[in-house]
């Protein structure tokens, strides 16, 4: 009588169906929230905030820290809002140039990946 090889199917943890479903749900939720906050970038209120930020801090903060004088092009949240509308409006802003802004965003994405879920 043939015996079937035992297959290891963890009930939870990485690799299990439940885990994958949970990850997908988490991803969906974050995407929805991020989408909602993304719309705020088109509002007059944000445009005023951004203009104000560039007025009070016309130079890139990160370049300035390295002794480089560089015109800021972007208003960035010092503490990432991570899709939180409340944080979007209340978190402190900093002026950054494109290059610095991109490097900040990349670091944020990496830290989100490494930590699993955002804090
Ligand atoms: Zn810069």
From TrEMBL:
<dbReference type="GO" id="GO:0004519">
    <property type="term" value="F:endonuclease activity"/>
</dbReference>
<dbReference type="GO" id="GO:0008270">
    <property type="term" value="F:zinc ion binding"/>
</dbReference>
<feature type="domain" description="HNH">
    <location>
        <begin position="60"/>
        <end position="105"/>
    </location>
</feature>
<dbReference type="InterPro" id="IPR002711">
    <property type="entry name" value="HNH"/>
</dbReference>
<keyword id="KW-0255">Endonuclease</keyword>
<feature type="region of interest" description="Disordered">
    <location>
        <begin position="1"/>
        <end position="33"/>
    </location>
</feature>
<dbReference type="Pfam" id="PF01844">
    <property type="entry name" value="HNH"/>
</dbReference>
<dbReference type="GO" id="GO:0003676">
    <property type="term" value="F:nucleic acid binding"/>
</dbReference>
<keyword id="KW-0540">Nuclease</keyword>
<dbReference type="GO" id="GO:0016787">
    <property type="term" value="F:hydrolase activity"/>
</dbReference>
<comment type="similarity">
    <text>Belongs to the HNH nuclease family.</text>
</comment>
<dbReference type="GO" id="GO:0005829">
    <property type="term" value="C:cytosol"/>
</dbReference>
<keyword id="KW-0378">Hydrolase</keyword>
<protein>
    <recommendedName>
        <fullName>Putative HNH nuclease YajD</fullName>
    </recommendedName>
</protein>
